[in-house]
Amino acid sequence: MPGVAIRADFLHCLRDPGLDGSDASAIEHVRDGVLLVRDGRVERLAPAAAVLPAIGPDVALHDLRGALVVPGFVDTHVHFPQVDVIASYGSQLLDWLERYTFPEERRFAEAAHARAAAGFFLDRLLENGTTTASVFCTVHPGSVDAFFEASEARGLLMVAGKCLMDRHAPDGLRDTADGGVADSRALIERWHGRARNRYSITVRFAVTSTPEQLALAGRLAAEHPTVHVQSHVAENRDEVAWVARLFPERRSYLDVYDHHGLLRERAVYAHCIWLDDADRARMTASGAAVSFCPTSNLFIGSGLYDLRQGLAAGNRVGLGSDVGGGTGYSMLRTLGEGYKVQQLRGTSLHPAYALYLATLGGARSLYLDDRIGSLVPGRDADLAVLDPAATPLLARRTALRDDPLDTFFALATLGDDRAVRETWARGVPVHRRGPAA
After folding, report:
1. Largest CA distance in the chain
2. What span, in angstroms and rounded, lies between the C-alpha atoms of 241 and 209?
3. Which residue has the higher pLDDT, 84 or 156?
4. 0.90 exceeded by the pTM?
5. b/e for 297-323, b at 16 or more Cβ within 10 A?
6. pLDDT tens digits, 188-232
7. Residues 170/106, Cβ–Cβ less than 8 Å
8. Mean pLDDT value of segment 277-292
9. What is the DSSP letter of 431?
């Protein structure tokens, strides 16, 4: 098949550079490089002078000089049905769910609404350079169908699943223990492994599932070891206290999931703010991952996640926008807020680790780092093409220092969707930013 060559500056992680960026060799920067892509996968990344003379007539060259190309961003926790919940005023978690989220999610019983929301949501991810996300749908199986249909049409690698909720949810948003898991099994058979789709068994949170539903979900996970698992844990103190009242026999909130077979590799748990040392050790031993969601944690007032503490325990950690509690789809802005949260915890989030967190670290959290998250040969060519001169302020700031990590840090601090010039999925452009209005 014809190949594609992209000429630009490139920046990506070969492995974890460390929270302080101490492993400088973990970062590869290719100035004026060419990325060769065949059959949707990276074939070679090297300086342009070494590649251009050997490019054959079957290779289409895209000259993006002036841009900084990084792997497509990985959002490890986000809710597609909450596109119309974002920026809802004045509540903490439990009240916010009742006032805003649950009423909106009822609308996804209508197939037309679900399809329209899925398309809008995915287009927002793409305009922000996000090419993979771990996504919550609603309790309605049709919301999952709508989401994967839209994702597949755009050629994206997405992880998603139907919410399981058989208690403490309003009419129209409850399933049953047996029925919810049966629906999930059917959706796994329909979507998991088709094209680039990946299914995730999705428990909303422990409060909204009975022990019977949790047990059945755990059995389903055991039946399907390549399927993902996702939920929330220890986001808000009131939520933690409620779980303790509902499950007094369990040691902790996290132990509820562990007891039911839902803490394992390919499992992602959002927030993890109020875990203790034993919980963090168990996360590491199980292979489950944390999704750090700074904009949501700040907006809903849940707390400040301690990244250094989680990493010291050996936890896998990715970054989550958590829209609609989160305040934007941009992983650049999410990194900027994450930097501020860690400053308040006494930790400086190094630019190298910020890049890792939004790309290879997220891919590793989802156990997809053999396919995405870097630009090494054999990986899917999912790319975010960043414009260091997207705004006058960015142009002035990024011209000050000839340092790609400094440029990336400036983009994470000052950038938003305007800084994403193009987004590619498997070597095909799926978003190009139009001219400024």
Report:
1. 68
2. 16
3. 156
4. yes
5. bbbbebbebbbeebbebebbbbbbbbb
6. 999 999 999 999 999 999 999 999 999 999 999 999 999 999 999
7. yes
8. 98
9. E
